[in-house]
Amino acid sequence: MVKRFVKYNPAFLEGEELIENFVVRQVDFRMIIRVIRENTVASNQHVLIIGPRGSGKTNLVRRVALEVGRDEELNKACYPLIFAEESYNAVSAADFWLEALFHLAEQTGEERRMQSYNELRRDPDEQRLGERALWQLLDFADKIGKRILLVVENLDMLLSEFSDKQEAWKLRHTLMNEPRLMLLATAIGRSDEIDHPAHAMFELFKIHELKPLDDEECNTVWELIAGEKLPGEQIRPVRILTGGNARLISLIARFGAKRSFRELLDDLIDLIDEHTDYFKSHLDTMASKERKVYLALAELWSLSTAKEVAEVARLDINTTSAFLGRLVSRGKVLFEDNGKRTKWYRISEGIYNIYYLMRRRGGPSARVKAAVKFMVSLYDPVASVKMLIDETATLQPEQCKDHFAAFEEIIKSVSDHQLIQRISLETSRNFLESPYLSETVKNILVVENITESKKNVNADVGDELGAIKVVLEHVNDLLKDGKYDIAIQLLEQFIVQHQGRIETEIAEWVVTALLLKALILGRQKRMDEALQTFTALIVMYRESSEVEIEALVARAMFYKGMIFGYLGRYNEAGSAFQQAIELDGSPDNVLELSKEYVYTSRPSISLIIELFVELAASGYAKEALGILVDSPAEPHLEPLVVALRLYIGEEVRSAVEILEVAKDVVKRIEARCSSVIAGVE
Question: I want to staple 246 with a disulfide (CB 3.0 to 4.6 A). Which of 56, 142, 160, 528 is the partner?
Fold first, then answer.
């Protein structure tokens, strides 16, 4: 069952609902409870929780307040007094205590306390007002025999609104010396009010910063909202795109509860558009130049230097650096030090980049779309195809060009062979033969192989080779006419007739015929038969010492990997690619095949990942990178390009989301490299 979710105001949830919804931040929760239990001396340890918008600060402190009321020991010692999420009226220490008195009257429901509040608020003497309001709070604490736990949100904003710095010092003096009061506060980021030795709140608090949710925690939130966890690694790209922000995870889970993983990420842009108010809130409190710097960083969507940001913002470097520093202090921007006296900046919530790039361009940028598509392929090659068939069932092929393009990509990633067969049965012949559906790489390679001329023909068997060439040319004609079954029969007759011949030239033609038969079977979607044919070829000719045959066997192993990839059996595909590299003796043949595949019209991202992981793990990372750079596929494979650069030791700057995905690819390469080494040993 999908849980009730309140976007911005957990206070609207009933106590039991809030407890039920509190499924992460357990470590943070226990830390705060421990501090409250240990506050038994004359001077209390106050706590400040720091975290960006949506990180779960409100849920956390309200859960703590509920626990104080539920736990017998804590309930005897403390009374939680919860301020409103924004205390706009508190611009002085006196206002702060008056605001506390108001919430005390609200919580207790005692009319006389509300009357006292209304009387005090009319007192023109600020000093007297503050003392009287504070006295009433302390009197209440004495009467119930408990400390008051003041739960105050957005303390950073509250302090920044104080009319005079001395007001903050007054507040500090009371908190330092009054054991009946403990402050549990939240803030969006660190600021001079808290960190600078010259300011009142310096070292007053035990500061606890909320870290982004990890994959497991994100999936726990997802399960709470959507009713079930995302399987496998599917939560990881969601975590990367949201920066582990609890609120954004909740929004996406609510949005994507009934969607397939592929649909969810494809529709992520629509979700962002639906919640423009949340993303616009990032800009509401910024001054114009500060906003300009922030948006310049969003436009770059990469780790960027102050100089680069200044150029995009059209501001001088000193002004830009100052504003970046302010944004860092407020938690809106993060920086990394590369150890060379250079700071690289990025926006703390990466998903805002996607929002901004979309709003700026009127639609998602190609780079964002490519990154999301890569994530789908890396973390979940299995996609829902039934929905695509249902959507196109009532349409003519020419009415849904995008569906044809998507069909090819999706079908390649399906691992369930029975599902592939069912889809083939349910899909009309017209759909499969539509001119809008791209030819697969296997078909392209069939044409290349059947038209390839053979060299070094031995004169002693020239007549027989001439007859063989006539047969294979006839097969070529049959293929051009679409007569695949007849072509396969002819090839099988040729293979049976010449199999076992020891003459190198004839053996080459037998291997070529087996290769061609397997590729035709693949074109007909008869994948099991294609795999059997490739396997038979490899078993029969793997031990050949002839260079030409070795190359053909390696090519067969490469194509076998392609078939595994088509079936979604990516581990087996990777193993086949690795064996193809080993069989070939030199990487040139496999690298050339890899390049041919990358340069096809619609290569499978999932298959490219497996192929290039194997190339890198086998020692050809630089060559693999050379294939991708400047290729038509490069814009769609940025995380893979970044991963290869990282793997060979290059310094890389990119969007933090892309870097995270790239690092996962590097882990795959390293794991595969270890496996290869272990196999050799």
Answer: 56
